[in-house]
Each structure stands twice: as structure tokens, then as C-alpha cells.
């Protein structure tokens, strides 16, 4: 394939040298250190998984039987699959500290069409994640108000599909808009807020675990796996949502003070801290209360209410709302940076890549925030959670394949971190992620497929022609250099 043909191919790859040059003129401010990055990662991982999804999977739903205390295994399985992907992300992040994360990794290693699909996929998935977390916050906010004797009207606290007589989830909409405003203030202010909020979150979880231990009834662990191993695997696919916040954190690589050095450390540290807390928290939750009695939207609040500690339940509800905000912030940051990166590359209009005096892409920030508010306001949590999981799992498959390909096609590229046992670890990540994808319902696959088809149409109608990798791109005619 000659150079001109390659430049017009859908498999054209973005050179690393171009990325280094773009980073110097990105318009994003470098203000995040190691601990701020780790806080963003922990903030993205820990939250709705402990405060909502653990109870949901343990208790069960109409379409999935409750797994009981075996929700612990669901988290461990999801964490194992996520760990293999985390090491792959760490190698890439130390080599290519760029805002696009998985989108950029796929673009560099496998070609433009693969990068496009993952980028397009992440736009929906990250927005949906923000919506899921907002729905979880809404459940705890309602529990808090009930604890102090205030009962919100049903029509404004649940969606029509939940069968509770609701119309719209107004608290979820409002919290999406609040988080959007916080992120719009700039990365430096956001990083400070995240560091403090994550510290509060970890202290809260340690308090919950430490107090809850004294109220564990071992009879609640029997049966440990009431529905068999099949639902445990399905549960792993659902709680997988709770163990991959580090990928959104990696989209902040261009805003790190030393991305190549700090990003790999922050990714690995954040996942280790999160998994230790998840294991302890799930054991306490299912030990305090029989899995059949756990509130699937506010698990720990209901558990402490059940053991006669309503004041503690109210306190948990308050701080759960505050701490889960960090998850929303991390993933809203993620979608805006992927969107920014795709626009800068020409695959989407350059209008989206404009930054303000805070070094923030305000346009995509508010568009993504409003979109997440819409999803949170009208859809139930289970459907949105499954939609996010299939997209992230697909991204993990691509990143794990990309790190294998790039290790052998660019063996001499500078790497500040090299994942061990190549190619066994990333190959396991591919198999584990694909396996978890097939645990999701067929409706989720249909929605996912429809979104990718829409993306394919947009790519061939706009992205392929306007890509800065295309020498005939109209963007070259209006720009002095290949930046949006």
C-alpha cells in the first residue's frame, strides 16, 4: 500500500510524533499531580458500585435472580478482568499521555476506523455512566429525606418504566447539571474538589465497614450462593460498571504535570485501593442484612436501618450523595476529553474542540451534561448500567489487543511502564471482557449495535473526509497546523 493510499485508508494510523506535537498546543492546562490523578481514579471507581449496584445484584431484579452474599464473587471476577485491562491502559498511558485514552490507543495501534468506533462508543458509555450514578444518588437522596420525615412525590423520583407511578427522576437531572457546572470551572478547581471529596468518601466507607462489622449476622451468609454460579457471572457483568473508573481518569493525561511517569502509577493504585474496599464492603453489607431485604437502590442505608440505626442510615445517605458525585465528575471529564480529542483530530467538527480561559472545552462539557441529565431523568438504572458496561468492555477488548499489537509493531517505542507476562495478561483481558459482554441481555446488544451503526454513518459521511490524517481534508485549508 503506497503512502497516498494509506492516507485515505480507514486503517490509517496516527503517528506518535504527531501526538507529542499536539500535546504542546492542546489548550488544556497541566495541573494534575500523582495524588490528584489517583483521587480521580478512585473517585471514578468507588461510588455507585458500593452504594447501589452491590445491593442491586445481591437482591436481584425481575430479570436477574439475587446472588446474595456471592456478590463478593461478582466483584472479584469483574475486578480480575478489569485488572488485566488496567495493566494494558497503564502501558499505553505511560507511552501516550493524551486526552483520548482508549480512542487514541486504538487509533495509534489498529487504525482510524477502530479508533473511531471506540471513541464513538465511549461518548455514549461515559454519558450513560454519569446518568447511572445520578440515578443512584437520587435513591440515596430520597432515603435521606425519608429519614428526616420528608417524602418526595413519587412522580418526580422515579421513571415510568420502574412501575412505581413515577414520571421523571428530577433529583437525578438536577445532580447531572450540578456536576456539569463544577467541571466547567476548570481542571485545577476540579482536581482540588476531587481530592477532598475522595478523601471524605474513603473515610465514609471505612466507617461503614468498621461499624457494620459489629452487626454482622453470619446466618445471613447462608446460603452464600442462593441462585447458583450463572447469576454470579451475570452479576459480574453488571458490577463491572463499578471497577473501571481508571479508564476515564486516563483521559486526563494531557492535564497531568508528568503524564508518562504518573499515569501508570495512578491507574494501578486506584484499582488496588478500590478492590480492597469493595471486598470488605460487600461482606459487611450481606452480613448485616439478608440479601432479600436489601434495598437495591440504597443498600447500606437500608442495612443500617434494618439493624436499628436510623441515624447512621441518614448520615450514610447524606455522605453517599456527596461521595458519589466524584464518580460523575470523573466520567463527565472522560466524555468531554474523548470528544475534544476526536474533534481535534478532525473526526468530529472542530467547533467542539475549543477551550476557554480555564483550559476547559465548555461546549462539549455542557452538551454531555445535558445529555446525561436526559438519560438519568427518563430511564431506569439497570438498562442504563448494562448499556455502559457493554461499551466499556468493548473498549477494554480493543485496548488489550492494541497493547499486544503495538508491543510487537513498535517494540522500541519509549515506555515508562511495561505490563508483565506479555501477551498472556492482555490476552486474558480480551477473553474475560468478551465473556462478560456475552452475559448481558440481547436488548443491550441491540442498543449497542444501533449506536455503532449510527457512528459508522457519521464516520463515512464526515469523519473520514475531514480527518487530519487525510491530506485532502477541508480542515487543512482553514488551519495553519493540524490542530482544532
Account of the protein in words:
The structure is a single chain. The chain is mostly helical and 484 residues long. Helix content is 68%, strand content 0%. The chain has 19 helices and no strands. It has helices at residues 3-8, 16-24, 34-45, 48-59, 71-95, 102-109, 112-147, 170-184, 187-212, 229-239, 245-249, 259-288, 299-306, 310-344, 362-378, 381-409, 424-437, 442-466, 475-478. α7 (112-147) packs antiparallel against α14 and α9 (187-212) runs parallel beside α12 (259-288). The protein is globular, with a radius of gyration of 22 Å. Mean pLDDT is 83; it is low at 1-5.
Which short descriptors sum up this protein?
about 475 residues, mainly alpha, 19 helices, disordered N terminus
Secondary structure topology:
Layout: H1 3-8, H2 16-24, H3 34-45, H4 48-59, H5 71-95, H6 102-109, H7 112-147, H8 170-184, H9 187-212, H10 229-239, H11 245-249, H12 259-288, H13 299-306, H14 310-344, H15 362-378, H16 381-409, H17 424-437, H18 442-466, H19 475-478
Helix pairs in contact: 3-9, 3-12, 3-14, 4-7, 4-12, 5-10, 5-12, 5-16, 5-17, 6-7, 6-16, 7-8, 7-14, 7-15, 7-16, 7-18, 8-14, 8-15, 9-12, 9-14, 13-14, 14-15, 16-17, 16-18
Amino acid at each position: 500500500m503506497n503512502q497516498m493510499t494509506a492516507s485515505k485508508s480507514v486503517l490509517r494510523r496516527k503517528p506518535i510524533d504527531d501526538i507529542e506535537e499536539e500535546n504542546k498546543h492542546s489548550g488544556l492546562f497541566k495541573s494534575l499531580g500523582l495524588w490528584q490523578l489517583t483521587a480521580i481514579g478512585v473517585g471514578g471507581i468507588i461510588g455507585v458500585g458500593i452504594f447501589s449496584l452491590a445491593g442491586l445484584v445481591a437482591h436481584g431484579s425481575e430479570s436477574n435472580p439475587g446472588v446474595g452474599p456471592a456478590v463478593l464473587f461478582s466483584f472479584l471476577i469483574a475486578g480480575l478482568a478489569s485488572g488485566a485491562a488496567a495493566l494494558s491502559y497503564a502501558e499505553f498511558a505511560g507511552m501516550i499521555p493524551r486526552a483520548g485514552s482508549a480512542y487514541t490507543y486504538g487509533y495509534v495501534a489498529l487504525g482510524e476506523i477502530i479508533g473511531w468506533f471506540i471513541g464513538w462508543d465511549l461518548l455514549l458509555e461515559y454519558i450513560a455512566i454519569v446518568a447511572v450514578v445520578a440515578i443512584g444518588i437520587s435513591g440515596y437522596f430520597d432515603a435521606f429525606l425519608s429519614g428526616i420525615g420528608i417524602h418526595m412525590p413519587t412522580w418526580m423520583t422515579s421513571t415510568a418504566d420502574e412501575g412505581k407511578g413515577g414520571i421523571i427522576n428530577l433529583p437525578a437531572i438536577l445532580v447531572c447539571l450540578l456536576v456539569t457546572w463544577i467541571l466547567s470551572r476548570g481542571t485545577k478547581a476540579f482536581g482540588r474538589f476531587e481530592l477532598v471529596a475522595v478523601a471524605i468518601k474513603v473515610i465514609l466507607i471505612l466507617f461503614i465497614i468498621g461499624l457494620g462489622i459489629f452487626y454482622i449476622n453470619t446466618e445471613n451468609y447462608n446460603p452464600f450462593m442462593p441462585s447458583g454460579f450463572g447469576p454470579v457471572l451475570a452479576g459480574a457483568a453488571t458490577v463491572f460498571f463499578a471497577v473501571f473508573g481508571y479508564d476515564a481518569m486516563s483521559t486526563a493525561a494531557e492535564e497531568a504535570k508528568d503524564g508518562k511517569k504518573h499515569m501508570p502509577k495512578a491507574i494501578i493504585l486506584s484499582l488496588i485501593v478500590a478492590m480492597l474496599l469493595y471486598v470488605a464492603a460487600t461482606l459487611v453489607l450481606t452480613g448485616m442484612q439478608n440479601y432479600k431485604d436489601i434495598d437495591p437502590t440504597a443498600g447500606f442505608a437500608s442495612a443500617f436501618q434494618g439493624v436499628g440505626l436510623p441515624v447512621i442510615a441518614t448520615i450514610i445517605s447524606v455522605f453517599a450523595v456527596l461521595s458519589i458525585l466524584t464518580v460523575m465528575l470523573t466520567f463527565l471529564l472522560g466524555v468531554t476529553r474523548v470528544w475534544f480529542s476526536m474533534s481535534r483530530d478532525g473526526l468530529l467538527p472542530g467547533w467542539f474542540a475549543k477551550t476557554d480561559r480555564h483550559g476547559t472545552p465548555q461546549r462539549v462539557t455542557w452538551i454531555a451534561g445535558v445529555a446525561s441529565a436526559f438519560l438519568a431523568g427518563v430511564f431506569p438504572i439497570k438498562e442504563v448500567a448494562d448499556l455502559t458496561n457493554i461499551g466499556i468492555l468493548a473498549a477494554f477488548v480493543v485496548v488489550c489487543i492494541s497493547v499486544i499489537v503495538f508491543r510487537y509493531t513498535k517494540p522500541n517505542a519509549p515506555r515508562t511502564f511495561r505490563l508483565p507476562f506479555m501477551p498472556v495478561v492482555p490476552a486474558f483481558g480480551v477473553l474475560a471482557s468478551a465473556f462478560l459482554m456475552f452475559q448481558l441481555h440481547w436488548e443491550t446488544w441491540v442498543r449497542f449495535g444501533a449506536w455503532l451503526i449510527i457512528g459508522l454513518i457519521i464516520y463515512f459521511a464526515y469523519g473520514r473526509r475531514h480527518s487530519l490524517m487525510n491530506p485532502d481534508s477541508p480542515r487543512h485549508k482553514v488551519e495553519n497546523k493540524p490542530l482544532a
